[in-house]
Design a protein that fits this description.
28% helix; DUF4160; 5-stranded antiparallel beta sheet; 5 strands; single chain
């Protein structure tokens, strides 16, 4: 599970070969022991939970980095490690 970014205590990661579970491009976010998955396409919460304020930060970050995330998704589902992406500042 390669980490692709970290900001405000949130760790964002993407699994390789992870296109079966949610059937959509997505990232995983971990915050203080809680996990959630978010769609790259629209930022929708797909599974899990993290505090609402942190989820909004993840969604804003996805909006800003959507193109980079889609490129990373293509790498990850092909078994290649994704690149790191700048954190939310």
């Amino acid at each position: 599970m390669p980490t692709i970014s970290m900001f405000f205590g949130i760790v964002i990661y993407m699994y390789c070969y992870d296109n079966e579970r949610h059937k959509a491009p997505h990232v995983h976010a971990k915050y203080q022991g809680q996990d959630a998955s978010f769609s790259i396409v629209d930022g929708e919460l797909l599974a899990g939970e993290i505090p609402t304020a942190k989820a909004r930060l993840v969604q804003a970050w996805i909006e800003i980095h959507r193109e980079e995330l889609m490129a990373d998704w293509d790498l990850a589902i092909s078994g290649e490690p994704p690149f790191r992406i700048d954190p939310l500042r």
